[in-house]
Structures are given as C-alpha cells and as structure tokens.
C-alpha cells in the first residue's frame, strides 16, 4: 500500500539557555546586523585560503560578518574590524540577530535559518546540501547553491547580494511564517503510526498486545505474555521462537525514489514514492 505523498515539516527543540560572551555582545552592538557564515562539521582542506576568500567577500560588500570556526578551523591571525570569529553558539539564539545566513546546507541549519526568516546562501559540499540550496532558491529565499569546488569571491559576492535584497528577505519571512504554522513532530508521529502494519503486529491470541515472537511453521505472532503462559504449560519450546519482524528493510540496497519536488503556495514540498 502506497502512502500519500508529502513531508511532516521540520523538527525543532526548545531554545536552550545560553549566555553569550561579552565580546560577542559588544560586536553585535557596535554596528548594523552582520551576516553569518559557517560550515558546521565540514572539514576544510585549506581553511586559511577559505578564510582569505571570505575576507575578500566581506571587504567587497563592506558588510559585517560572524564567521563560525567550525570543524573546518576557519580563522586568521590577521584581524578584520568587520569580522568576529565564533566558537559554538546556538543557532536559534544567533540567527535572529543576523541579516542572512551562509552555510553548507545541512538540513538542520537550513531549517533553523528559515524558521528565523533569514535569507539563505548555501555552499554545498555533498549529500542533500545541494537539494536544500535548490529548495531555498525555488522559494526565492536565496540564490542557487554554489558547489564548494566552484566557489569564488565573485560568486559568493553575487549570492550574498541576492540574499540581502528585499525580494529574498520577503520570501524568507514568508517561509518563516509557514514553518511557524507547522507541527512537524506531531505530523511525523501521526504518519509513523498511520504506516504501521498493525495486522501483522498484533498478537494472534490477544490482539491488543504486540506480537513479539514468531512461532515457526505456524505463521503465528504471539506476545511475550502468551509465550510465557505456553512455556509454563509446556505447550511451547521457547528455544524455537524467533523474534517477530513485521517488515524487513534492505538497508544495503533499498533506495527512496524522489519523484518530484516543488515550492508552491503551501510551502516547500518533497514528494516521495
């Protein structure tokens, strides 16, 4: 049986308590809101060269920026008056205080950036990062993603200029409003329960119980309670029982087929089959 297409919506946890360092607060107060640049857990082969590229971009645009050091080790011994290097700062605290976010396109970073209504520039490295960049671009909340191998000063300058424009800001704010109306966790839980193979999961003796064990050669699913009673009455050899597997997934070869994706009036949708 095929499920209806659609996605649940993003998951968010409650904002943690966070006390920012004084120098970060001072930087934020010292001028207009900066942009955020960070690549999370991506390991950069040449962080020094990438940092120099980012400095050139920031100087060209004459803007202020927060740069997350991340796992890539971004940083410089040369100071830049418009740049503040970040250690670990919660995104849900930080992003409301910036103009736009530039990052690698991880699903979680993309989600919180859009939830905060921030235009998004994605420099993609691998995996689903390019997909999230394309979704932001289709919604108008950012430029087309820039593959890291093709990253240049000019391309990043162009992308950030797009993100700082009024159209991108309006699109990001609209996405934020739509996301605020979602309940991704509840939708996911409902979808999980809706897709459970309940008939195969029920104990054949007490249907309100879950079938934990499978009786060989009889195609019976029984609960632990029933197995215990049958063992006590010497009607069943527990050593012959097998754990009941209600659905078997081929984790090595099975793939999810993405048939269609779109950004429309109801928000960003990914249709699966």
What does this entry look like structurally?
The chain is of the alpha/beta class and 273 residues long. It folds into two domains: 22-184, Glycogen Phosphorylase B (Rossmann fold, 3-Layer(aba) Sandwich), CATH 3.40.50.2000; 198-243, no CATH class. The protein has helices at residues 22-29, 47-61, 91-94, 107-115, 129-138, 153-163, 166-180, 184-194, 198-201, 224-232; strands at residues 35-38, 65-68, 83-86, 101-103, 120-124, 146-147, 213-215, 220-222, 242-243, 258-264, 267-272. Strands 3-2-1-4-5-6 form a six-stranded parallel β-sheet, with helices on both faces. Helix 2 crosses helix 6 (153-163). The longest helix is centred in the first third of the chain and has 15 residues, at 47-61. It starts with 21 loop residues before the first helix and ends with a strand. The model is unreliable at 1-5 and 256-273 (pLDDT under 50).
């Amino acid at each position: 049986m095929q499920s209806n297409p659609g996605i649940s919506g993003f998951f968010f946890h409650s904002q943690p308590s966070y006390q920012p360092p004084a120098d970060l607060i001072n930087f934020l107060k010292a001028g207009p809101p900066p942009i955020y640049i960070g690549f999370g857990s991506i390991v950069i082969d040449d962080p020094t060269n990438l940092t120099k590229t980012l400095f050139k971009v920031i100087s060209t645009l004459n803007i202020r920026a927060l740069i997350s050091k991340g796992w890539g080790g971004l940083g410089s011994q040369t100071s830049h008056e418009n740049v503040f290097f970040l250690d670990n700062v919660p995104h849900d605290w930080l992003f409301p205080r910036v103009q736009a976010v530039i990052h690698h396109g991880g699903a979680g970073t993309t989600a919180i950036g859009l939830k905060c209504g921030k235009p998004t520039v994605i420099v993609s490295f691998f995996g689903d990062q390019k997909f999230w960049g394309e979704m932001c671009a289709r919604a108008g909340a950012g430029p087309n993603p820039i593959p890291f191998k093709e990253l240049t000063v000019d391309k990043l300058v162009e992308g950030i200029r797009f993100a700082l424009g009024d159209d991108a800001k309006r699109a990001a704010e609209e996405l934020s409003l739509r996301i605020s109306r979602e309940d991704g966790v509840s939708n996911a839980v409902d979808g999980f329960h809706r897709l459970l193979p309940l008939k195969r999961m029920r104990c054949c003796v007490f249907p309100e119980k879950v079938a934990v064990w499978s009786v060989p050669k009889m195609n019976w699913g029984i609960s632990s309670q029933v197995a215990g009673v049958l063992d006590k009455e010497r009607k069943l050899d527990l050593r012959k029982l097998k754990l009941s597997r209600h659905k078997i997934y081929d984790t090595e070869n099975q793939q999810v087929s993405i048939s269609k994706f779109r950004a429309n009036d109801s928000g960003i949708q990914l249709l699966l089959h």
